[in-house]
Amino acid sequence: MWNRQQVKEQAKIIMKRNYWKMFVVTLLVGLLTGEKTTIIERVQNFASTNISYDTSPIFYSSNFQYIFYSFISIASILGILYTIFIGNVIVVGKSRYFIKNHDENPELSEIFKGFKGNYLNVVKIMFLMNLKILLWLFLFIVPGIIKAYEYSMIPYLLAENPNLSASQAFSLSKQMTTGQKMDLFVLDLSFLGWIILGLICCGIGILFLQPYPEATRAEVYLILKQQV
Q1: Which of 120, 156, 168, 175 could disulfide-link to 164, CB 3.0 to 4.6 Å?
Q2: How far is CA 120 from CA 27, 33, 197, in A?
Q3: Distance, first Cα to last Cα, the chain
Q4: Burial class (CB in 10 A: 0-12, 13-18, 19+), 121
Q5: Which DSSP string do the residues of 120-139 spell out, in sequence order?
Q6: Whole-structure pTM over 0.90, yes or no?
């Protein structure tokens, strides 16, 4: 079994040994997996909040509207494809880095190791994971969150064994999180104070916080893996 204090203390020990490389990893992964979505969302928000037939006569032009919304659609599709074929694989690479970071000093290149070996299998399983979570969230919010925790070990499992079949990955993650979901949820809540503190610091503080929860979740994975 595990408890929050145990895994967080272990994460702090690891951070003392290797904090700045961990910081660079989380920063790189954040840029490579999140920035594209932020840009698309900003453009879409601009379109929804600033385009109005009453206030923007230029948009009366059907041709202009067609071109503009075509651009938005293409950007959204490209963002989804990027997430499926690149972003998700980097997430698996990040998991691989933090697993190895438990007892060694891995290279930054670990975050790109998902592109080697059984790359398409990683793409497929991560896509299925995100799709299932999305469908559950569309149906019911709370069951969707529960499923997200049930599947939360999949990136770590693929990081260690990219040849797992989809059924094996989902089954193992389910076994590892059975009876653990509430504890995992409370663990995430325990970082809320740090997140608020990071937001107070103009949001920049969150960047320096990220290695802490990432290292902690990797410690939880290593413990749950031993139990299964």
Answers
A1: 168
A2: 25, 18, 39
A3: 11
A4: middle
A5: HHHHHHHHHHHHHHHHHHHH
A6: no
